[in-house]
């Protein structure tokens, strides 16, 4: 299906271009989210008559997104979750959780603006891209911790898991040493 793009779409094209895409992608994504119009003669004429207004609207939205990006870039948001001793979460942190944390921090983010390939399933600091506008992206940091104190230690760069890992490695070293001593004594 041929469509006229109403905004820049990554890996597809710029605003105003007519591109050929699969029917399902056009119907379910581009047309449903008003990112494109079917490339019929009447829509082409309508787009050309409205082109200046659409470009002006896009520039205004881009300007607003850039202002938000200046204040949002590099911000850290803390999310408290329960986790096991190894640092694996009992649940996960999704785009909705990140958007809610940013909203609680004073920024208005929608969950579809947060770009997570996979949900966050471990404690620690995670760099998450945020897509504010087709041409404006920023990175924020999500600090996933068990408590506020742990979040503060993680923010300073301390690892709460390292202490546990070192302890378990020491215990493992003792067990290996004991097993070697027993094996050596039996011969």
UniProtKB/TrEMBL annotation:
UniProt xrefs under Pfam families: Ribosomal_L9_C, Ribosomal_L9_N
Gene3D superfamilies given in the database record: Ribosomal protein L9, C-terminal domain, Ribosomal protein L9, N-terminal domain
Top-level taxon of the source organism: Bacteria
Biased composition (Basic and acidic residues): 148-167
Region: Disordered, residue numbers: 148-173
Gene Ontology MF terms in the entry: rRNA binding; structural constituent of ribosome
UniProt keyword annotations, A-Z: Ribonucleoprotein, Ribosomal protein, RNA-binding, rRNA-binding
Gene Ontology CC terms: ribonucleoprotein complex; ribosome
GO annotation, biological process: translation
Family according to the record: Belongs to the bacterial ribosomal protein bL9 family.
Name of the protein in question: Large ribosomal subunit protein bL9
Species: Methylocystis bryophila
Taxonomic path: Bacteria, Pseudomonadati, Pseudomonadota, Alphaproteobacteria, Hyphomicrobiales
């Amino acid at each position: 299906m041929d469509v006229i793009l109403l905004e820049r779409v990554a890996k597809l094209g710029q605003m105003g271009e007519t591109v050929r895409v699969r029917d399902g992608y056009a119907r379910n994504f581009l047309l449903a989210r008003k990112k494109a119009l079917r490339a019929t003669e009447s829509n082409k004429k309508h787009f050309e008559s409205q082109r200046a207004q659409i470009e002006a609207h896009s520039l205004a939205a881009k300007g607003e997104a850039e202002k938000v990006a200046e204040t949002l870039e590099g911000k850290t948001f803390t999310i408290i979750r329960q986790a096991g001793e190894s640092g694996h979460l009992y649940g996960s942190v999704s785009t909705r959780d990140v958007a809610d944390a940013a909203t609680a921090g004073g920024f208005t983010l929608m969950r579809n603006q947060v770009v997570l390939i996979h949900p966050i399933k471990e404690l620690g600091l995670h760099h998450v891209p945020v897509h504010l506008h087709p041409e404006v992206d920023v990175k924020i940091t999500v600090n996933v911790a068990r408590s506020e104190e742990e979040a503060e230690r993680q923010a300073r760069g301390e690892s709460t898991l390292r202490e546990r890992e070192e302890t378990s490695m020491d215990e493992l070293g003792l067990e290996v040493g004991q097993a070697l001593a027993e094996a050596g004594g039996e011969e």
